[in-house]
C-alpha cells in the first residue's frame, strides 16, 4: 500500500516480497555501525524482520517503517517511517538508505514528507528522533527537516548515549 509520494519517490508498506532488499539494507556497514546488527543472515531472517517489525506495527498502529523506492523503475533504495518504541514516550522517525543512494537528497525528501505526514495526517503533536553520537549525517538531516536537538539520552536497558531530536 502506497502511503506517501514525493517528486522522485514512493513510500509504501513493506511486504514479505521485500526480503531481499531488507537483507541487503540491514547488512550494510552503515546500518550495523549506527543502528546495530539485527541478526539478519538469511532471506528467511529478512522476511521475519518484515513480519515482526514493520508489518506488525502497521496492524497495531496503522503506520511504521515504509519502503522508499524511486519512482523511476520502482527501485527500492531505503526505508523511512514512524516507529513506536517502548523506550520512548513519543513516536519517532527513522530512516536508512543503501550506501549507493546516500547523499542524493532522498533522505531529506522522504524524511521531510514523513515528518509532515506524522504531524498533519496522524495528528502527532511531538515526533522524536534518536541517533548515535557520531552519526553526523543523520543529525544534519534531522536538523535540515526542522527537528531541534534536545540533548542526549540513554534508553532503558541500554548503555549507549544517543542524541535526541524533536519536532512539535
UniProtKB/TrEMBL annotation:
Presence of keyword Metal-binding: no
Domain N-acetyltransferase: 9-167
Molecular function GO terms recorded: acyltransferase activity, transferring groups other than amino-acyl groups
A Pfam family of this chain: Acetyltransf_3
Keywords in alphabetical order: Transferase
Protein name: GCN5 family acetyltransferase
Species: Sporosarcina globispora
